[in-house]
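General statements about sequence and structure are easier to judge against a single worked case. For one protein, we set the task of working out the structure tokens from the amino acid sequence alone. The sequence in question and its structure tokens are set out directly beneath this paragraph.
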Amino acid sequence: MKHCTFSFTTALGAAALLVLGHMPQARADASADLVAKGRYVAEASDCSACHTIKGGKPYGGGMEFKLPIGSIYSSNISPDPAHGIGTYSEAEFARAVREGVRKDGASLYPAMPFPSYARMSDSDIHALYVYFMKGVQPVAQAAPANGIPWPMSMRWPMIFWRAVFAPSVASAQKDVNRTFPTPAIARGAYLVEGPGHCGACHSPRGIALQEKALSASSGTAFLSGGAPIDGFVPTSLRQDQRTGLASWSEDDIVAFLSTGRNLKGESFGGMTDAVYHGTQHLSPEDLRAMAQYLRSLQPNSPNAAAWRYDPAAATALQHGDASARGAKVYVDHCAACHRTDGHGYAPAFPPLAGNPVVMSEQPDSLVHVVQSGAALPGMTKAPSAFVMPSYSQMLSAQQIADVVTFIRGAWGNNASPVDAATVASLQKSAPPRVLDEKPVPLN
């Protein structure tokens, strides 16, 4: 018995030593897993698109946002203790992300989408905090000072803005847990309404620049299309005919979110940033969940007629008739890539026939792309990059108005014409996006 007891004790001690010997490694593995999860949440939340400038260090801030009241610059959210968030506790970090209040108690401007981030779970916030503190390199640089003149630069009125327009974390979490048809749609809703903050661009805003709806439970205004941003008009992401995603399949949406292109169109402007920095990094399961959720949204304009292809413009061009307004400009400068029938060569060159961007009530996006050009960088799953040249130096405002009018009216698009004065008012001086972007190293 003594021998047996000794053997058992010895074995028990050896097992304990074995377990204790592996505990540091187990903690390291757990920490690495948490950092990896936090990085994924950061990608789902599109953090680097706003807080990492081209050529700058990850999360060093400095991105300019031009608002009606002046310019503001994104903050340094690296763990640098002097210029970043290195001294933030997790509670202070969570309050900034979900409630829009800095460590010092000052209010953040709602360019930071905290009304959407209020929906983020405690576990995602925890992982995000661990990632920023342990997985991101400190950046010892201050963001530029905001260019908002006094008295608009005062932040204390934002206390009242938050009270009226931003949900409490408790109410947002309750809405997250509402009933959904399937777990996948519930997951998609969480990603779209919360971390993805899609409504920040794709939902209309009120007179106080607040989003008129923060989730699908707030009505069909949510994701029904937003106000112009840097010359582009975010389209409806609901199942709206002509100007929404009614003609897009689940696979179309997944392809677009993962590559910035599909057989229906291509991303441009801020949406390209959202794909490049964010959605292309998400798992196939999460992308499909987002697609299923978007497919479940009822149209904001349920009585709108569906787009139907009209071959009249194509027939005329193919028979040498370019007498329609803007038709000759289209043949000379556009048809080689987008074809006389408007179908393009997708996914390399997107179709113009039936394209929601083309049929928008506001022509800003189409005018801006023609004027300033656009570039779609290579993505992980679609490494080829494509460019749309700028025509601002080749075509007059009248010619741009004519060709945009032709595109908006041809092939069944039947959108309103555009005049030269509108084109001139939308003239943008910014150069087209460059193509030499590489995936941003996020440590």
Observations:
- The first strand starts at residue 64 and ends at 67.
